[in-house]
Design goal:
The chain is of the alpha/beta class. The chain has helices at about 50, 135-140, 175-180, 185-200, 215-225, 245-270, 270-285, 300-305, 310, 315-325, 345-355, 360-365, 380-385, 390-400, 415, 425-430, 440-445, 465-470, 490-495, 495-505, and strands spanning about 25-30, 65, 70, 75-85, 95-105, 115-120, 145-150, 205-210, 230-235, 290, 300, 450-455, 480-485. The strands form two sheets. Strands 1, 2, 3, 4, 5, 6, 7, 8, 9, 12 and 13 form an eleven-stranded mixed β-sheet that branches. A two-stranded antiparallel sheet has the order 10-11.
């Protein structure tokens, strides 16, 4: 471990930064291999798709179509489309196909240079890669040395997108659930390997950068296809891997961190304490237990609490939430008019959730933790054990803080959110599904040879610090940069700095202590 000043954690931990003369950051050497952990050689079957014909030469090389170069300020881009198997365990020549889209990005003038490849894996699940509008942030920094590949993970963006409308083509809940089971990290890694052997010269290994859920996918990649990897960078994305379905452990820890984030929010904006109580009471007393949303859904007290998903865990989230709440009420223009929630707020509420454009996030969220076991609506069950801490109506009546929830999906959302209603039965089937295939091979991680560097955010609301550290202890050779200078959105907010830190760990510029 690096030389740092003694850290005294009082009511709030000190700001952590890398430089050893400052008390703000911790850099850890490679974590020793553990003495023992449960074996997962039973997972070997999951490797076959990634090392077999489907991921390399078994499918036709004509399944890849590259577009022409085009420009945004300071960058050159080229689109790639791949026709890949929906299910890599089936014969490639006869199985159903999907389109996988990836965007190649280089700095202007570097189109023909022999640059190493860097694959970016986006957070989610169910969100597409960023769409560059200019050369800035971590993308600009990465393009100084790399040929960047922005992958739209299957089901997102231009990769056979599973939208609220396209999923209606699947005529039954059973058909939809059976289709969606192919859209987790295992097959995202299969897709990455499918692309790598077609895009990288001589099918060489590439570096990958995984943000949040993209980091989960990267650890799956390390588990089952490490020969395709040159280096791995993780930002806020070390997954829990310790049991068949650690979702209960995840949500227990995340509820605790979410409570702390609520307390910090209300300390920043004390005027919102009463505003939120008043809104909750208004919704509870309204006919039907809520007010209608512009899309046709309903805003209830428990629905209001969902604003914590985007408002509590990323930089500027507190501010955005506060500015939404300051416009929650319509003005009284005519004497005697009833008080009502403004259209501005209702519209902003729906836009902040994003389920109308990215429903896959809600459908697959808990399944990202499952290996051979069901989630059983884990967040909903854990919340029920909180003894009323997250009961918004009760809190408002008792004059307590109304707590927003964090990154949790609840079954009632498929009743109250209009765009999710058609998928309620499929969501229940996925929550009950037990035969999920493996996502990690702990033996492989214990014996990892691929250089790995990870940014671990101490106050991360989405990826719990303690659970991330437990997993890090299972990845041989990993180097950690632990910081609370950034929240979960560190790659977006301080992209150049974060990217430089991690590359420095791997290049030797940040030496071992």
């Amino acid at each position: 471990m690096c030389s740092i000043r003694a850290l005294r954690f009082l009511t709030k931990p000190p700001l952590l930064r890398f430089i050893s003369s400052s008390p703000q950051s911790i850099l850890l050497n490679p974590i020793p291999k553990p003495l023992s952990f449960h074996s997962s050689r039973r997972l070997a079957a999951a490797v076959t798709a990634m090392t077999g014909a489907n991921s390399s030469g078994g499918c036709s090389q004509s399944d890849h179509v590259a577009g022409d170069w085009y420009s945004v300020p300071d960058l050159r881009l080229r689109d790639h489309s791949f026709t890949a198997p929906l299910d890599y365990s089936l014969d490639c020549s006869t199985c159903p196909k999907i389109t996988i889209f990836a965007r190649e990005v280089v700095s202007v003038g570097k189109e023909e240079q022999p640059l190493p490849f860097l694959l970016y894996l986006q957070g989610g699940p169910g969100f597409e890669s960023p769409r560059p509008t200019e050369g800035s942030g971590w993308i600009s920094k990465a393009c100084e040395e790399y040929r960047l590949v922005l992958l739209d993970q299957r089901g997102t963006g231009l990769s056979t997108p599973l939208t609220a409308s396209s999923m209606m083509q699947l005529k039954s809940p059973e058909e939809l659930a059976n289709y969606l089971k192919h859209f987790r990290a295992d097959n995202i890694v299969n897709d990455a390997e499918f692309i790598r052997v077609r895009l990288v010269p001589d099918a060489g290994p590439w570096t990958i950068l995984g943000q949040s859920y993209g980091g989960f996918c990267a650890v799956t990649y390390l588990s089952f296809a490490p020969k395709g990897l040159k280096q791995v960078l993780l930002t806020g994305g070390i997954p829990p891997i310790g049991s068949s379905c650690p979702a209960d452990t995840v949500y227990s820890a995340c509820f605790e961190q979410t409570i702390r984030q609520n307390e910090k929010y209300y300390k920043r904006f004390p005027q919102d304490v009463e505003i939120v109580r008043e809104v909750v009471s208004h919704l509870a007393e309204h006919e039907g237990g809520g007010v209608h949303l512009p899309s046709g859904g309903i805003l209830t007290p428990r629905g209001l609490q969902l604003l914590g998903l985007s408002g509590l865990g990323s930089s500027t989230g507190f501010e955005r939430l506060h500015y939404m709440l300051e416009r929650v009420w319509d003005p009284i223009i005519v004497a005697g008019a009833q008080k009502q929630i403004s259209y501005y707020f209702l519209n902003a509420y729906e836009r902040s959730l994003g389920f109308d454009t990215n429903p896959l996030y809600a459908l697959l969220h808990e399944s990202i933790y499952c290996q051979g076991a069901s989630s059983g609506w884990s967040a909903h069950r854990i919340r029920a054990k909180d003894e009323g801490k997250f009961d918004a109506v009760k809190a408002a009546k008792e004059g307590r803080l109304v707590l927003f929830t964090g990154e949790m999906i609840f079954p009632w959302m498929f009743e109250e959110i209009h765009s999710l209603r058609p998928f309620k039965d499929a969501a229940n089937l996925l929550a009950a599904k037990e035969d999920w295939p493996p996502l990690y091979d702990i033996d492989s991680l214990n014996n990892n040879k691929v250089p790995v560097a990870a940014a671990v955010y101490y106050e991360d609301m989405y990826v719990n610090f303690k659970l991330a550290m437990e997993t890090a202890s299972q990845i041989a050779g990993i180097r950690l940069w632990i910081t609370n200078e950034f929240m979960h959105s560190g790659l977006r907010d301080g992209g150049s700095q974060v990217f430089d830190q991690l590359m420095g760990l791997l290049s030797g510029k940040k030496p071992l202590f």
